[in-house]
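Exercise 7. Predict the joint structure of the components listed below.
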Amino acid sequence: MTVAIETRIGEAGHCGPDIRSDLHVRIEPRESGRIEIDLESRVKPYYGEAIRRQAEEALEALGVQHARVQIHDEGALPFVISARIEAAARRAGLGEGTRVLPNQIPLPKPSPRDRLRRSRLYVPGSEPKYFINAALHGADAIILDLEDSVHPAEKDAARLLVRNALRAVDFLNCERMVRINQLPLGLEDLNEIVPESPDLILIPKVESRNQVVEADHRIAAIKGDYGITRPIWIMPILESALGIENAFAVATASEHVVALTIGLEDYTADLGVVKTSSGAESLFARQRVVNAARAAGLQAIDSVFGDVGDMEGLRAWGLNSRALGFGGMGCVHPLQIPVIHEAFAPTPAEVEKARKIVAAYDDAQQKGLGVVSLGSKMIDPPVVQRALKLMARAYEMGLSE
Amino acid sequence: MSILARAEMIANAAGRMVPEAVNGRLQTPYMGVGKYRPGGSKAAPPIRSASDYPASGDKRVADLETALRRCGLRDGMVISSHHHLRDGDRVALLALEAASRIGVKDLMWFPSASFPSQKSVIELMESGVVDHIEGSMNGPLGDYCTQGRMRGMGVLRSHGGRWQAIQDGEVHIDIAVIAAPTADPFGNCDGSHGKSACGSLGFALADSIYADHVIVVTDNLMPFPCIPWQIQGNNVDYVVEVESIGDPSKIVSGTTQITRSPDRLRIADFVARFLRDAGIMRNGFSFQAGAGGIALAFVSYLKQMMKQAGVKARFVRGGSTKYLVEMLEEGLTDYILDGQTFDLDGVRSLAENPRHVATSPFTSYNYHSKGNFASMVDAVVLGATEVDVNFNANVVTHSDGRLLHGIGGWQNCLSSGCTILAVPSFRDRIPVIVDEVTTLCGPGELIDVVVTERGIAINPRRQDLIDAVRGSKLPIRPLPEIKGEVERICGGKPQRPQRGDRPVAVVKWVDGTVLDTVWQII
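Solution:
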């Protein structure tokens, strides 16, 4: 009789005629024998050998020695292949504590604290096909999402996929954001994500200052372990009545918090009201977020506009949002990006007025005058400050020389 | 019996190895763009006498089998059909099955294109009724050919190349079988009316003029005269009435859909902006785009830009779709010159609007015409399966050599003023921008611009275009740079798929010379 040992089949990823850029991996541990790899792939004539080689190396790194491994590939890129193999191995109870990391492309420059954050494009963390070209569409930021768009059973695998994407995918000029899960699950996300130096972490459903502090401490500890010195910013998402009430405390919980944002689906659910396109039911909450953020010297960022087909509605929402004091909002489809950028851009009249004020200010500075005046009007210092800021923003958005 | 086994291979002007003979006929290897100028007279059908045809004009016979018998069908003949009914066509199969019942063998089927619904031709090839196909093959028929199971060699021609081959006698059609959405007993045909309406019938025009015998098959017979007539009854021998010539739901799509893929929309937007910024989009200009997702999106973006700039086109070339019809109806173009009709709006417009005109490969693409429309079009937007760093492109095979698409009008359109390939830089993990195309269908000297989601590459031969877009915000990049980026994303250069050493089909250039070979896959 053979001695019964615990074998567990581990599977990860997806395959099928409608699946693209992903793969399904099934690892069946055995008591003895070699590693046997069955490979099916729609790109087999081109990358069959590369996939097999990559799988062998990954399995060896994970310490898998005796197993039958079935790979059904739908044209996945290498960083996806390694994430899926690692996830399947871990689910099989193998390779604990080992990471199979894809080659690291050069890290982009650290993200400035006060950078432009008009648009942030949500990309589901379990859908690798959306990662690859996400940055092409010109959003200010990409959010690799581990929270609502990922099924609870897929959290572990999505985490690895997002981690690998941070290493291997070129997100161009986009700020690389990750939305982790609600704490405490989100702390496990941080363990995988932070070593890859994301620019910003979004923490969902924040209701108290302590949650931000807890996440911030964890981030700092991991950064210390990995010798990471570049900043990793935090954007708490307030999504409940209590969260809104505590907005200022949350905003000031850590020096790494750079922006406050709001999640209106959960917030309206918490209030027990219907979310409307006019947003009347959430006006108070949004104003509260803007005020708390500004009081703490942070950016205020609005929620998403969910109806991808309604570009006019989106434009109206964005214009209103900017008027309330928000500096940007989320997007759920790349088509929303240009509309949002237009809505959050200063109007030509605003730019022109600011330009005149700045010119008058420069003029007064040169002449050593304490008072800035434009025509017959005296310009107050805060107005000058606002004009300077607006011109700097307009320059960043490419609206001014 | 096998000619394939004996085929001697020689290198053509593009450096491609091509067979000296195809299906027993000596070939001219590709010599370069515009280099081949054959002489002699054009082919012609036999002289007929009106006194041999019924004075009443009633050419109806009981069924296809009777018509084929009366046309003298025998072993080894060439039977042609057109593809305006696309995947809904029933007539080509009805004709080949009738031939099978008659008991003939070794036919050559010469469709203007074949479709997956015609896959049962494989059984007719297995049983010996059909020897081989000269015409586009994809899906199951394409696999049958590339697996090396077809007895004769496949010959892939452009729409213009098919007309050229008929006119210079390279292909002689013994019997043309023409599916007609509307016809009269004399044989006049119209494509725009009837329950199986498909719009234009241009692909059947050469067959009707040059075939020895012409059979019209219709499911909507009306008393003489059938007005308008796109096919003239004076060329027709027999008319057969059937219950249905095709499945209307597969003939035209109810609605043509613009892609919602952000990457493809980005490509379409780039193409439209390129035409605008290069100054090609100006009053009186012309363009052609197909019915694929990118092409439709391109048309909708260009339309907005034309409105903003107050620009109007003189003509646009179909494949017509709802989007071109809207441009016509909104006065953004004077004419649609339509080679085939893709959706219900196109069919309606062609039937009702005198400025929506059916054309044929004779007017549009034929190498033996005294000029053709294709070179008069200012810009054309096409797809491709692969493009190499020298702008050579492949449209017929997948990167592994399997037949994927017919050539269609693609090769012919390359002669436009500005030929743009709108392609993703990679599909799944397979690079589209490569070092060398698997199958050469379009010489790089005719391909001016490659637009991908990662940037736009202009052929260095087109300094005028490079100068025209200088100062534009478009991401203009060298093609090798895009290729390098794609290879980095895909994890290195792909390995070269293994292929057999046996030619199974040839790709003809628009002039009838042999441009490249499709090899058996293993």
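Discussion. Chain A has three domains: 10-91, 119-344, 348-396.
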